[in-house]
Amino acid sequence: MNKKRIKIAIQKSGRLADHSSDLLKKCGLVVSRNKGQLIGYAENMPFDLLFVRDDDIPSLVKDNLADLGIVGLNVVLEKQFEYTNSTQKELFSIEEYLDFGQCRLSFAYPEVGDIQSLDQLANKKVATSYPFIVSDYLERENFDVEVIKFSGALELAPSLGSADAICDLVSSGRTLRVHNLNEGESILESTAVVIKSQNILDPFKQEWIRKLLERISGVLQVRESKYVMMHAPRNSIDKITELIPGTESPTIIPLEGTDETVALHVVCKEDVFWETLENLKQEGASSILVVPVEKMLV
Ligand code: PRP
Ligand code: ZN
Description:
There is one protein chain. The protein is an alpha+beta fold. 29% of the residues lie in helices and 32% in strands. The strands form 3 sheets. The protein has a 7-stranded mixed beta sheet. A 5-stranded mixed beta sheet has the order 9-8-10-7-11. A hairpin with a 6-residue loop joins β14 and β15. The longest helix has 22 residues, at 203-224. It starts with 5 loop residues before the first strand and ends in a 6-residue tail after the last strand. 31% of the residues are buried. 1-O-pyrophosphono-5-O-phosphono-alpha-D-ribofuranose (PRP) is lined by residues 14-15, 54, 168-175.
């Protein structure tokens, strides 16, 4: 493998997979990959994509087999605990929090049964794929519960008799419902993040990574951003600008044949709701147009 190419580890299949590929595409990567192949090559930039299990991503980045990774904060935190406990040095940093992969790590209890909260779980067993995060939480909160590490088919642990409760990721809640489990205490909110190896010395790689991270942050800003155009009374410019959330100074363009009305253009870094448009109209704005922004570099 070419040493000058930057390797990005992303989830092969699962909740983050499509979003991760999509984000990189939006950053300009044109990736060719044969179906089922575990590596993809960007044709137009020095990046290779490694398609792997999400749980393996932090180790790949830590061990320098990948330079960047897109993975859930939940997995990152669990690995960080693991490395600190084994006095391994933490060799990656969190570079960006992304706008997908939102979920929470929650306790869940069998619908039938007396145990429906942590208080009732004393001296009993909880199964989880996040033993470090869960043990740390239980210790801090002074709950005496035995933590059992389970990888895969966690939802079955209570019905198999291996545990009295589970602590797992919940996104829509569908998995819990299907397995007749009630969601209880949440102990962590998670989202997808970009992690970076701390061991990248090559200036060529550093420069491309900087560029990619800048584009990622541009893509995130753009997703919410809108370009707003309207006609506005000159004497309401200040009030109108205040009404539009997250804006920088507007561009004011004179209109032919009038001094009182101007055209006002502004980039708004948040979504623009109907209420805002109604308020703008009340301040005298007219012909209001809200259009999506395609790309942004700030
Ligand atoms: C998590 C979790 C559940 C599911 C919950 O798995 O382990 O299986 O998502 O989502 P829901 O509330 O929308 O049903 P994940 O996608 O992280 O896959 P993995 O555990 O195989 O990595
Ligand atoms: Zn996983």
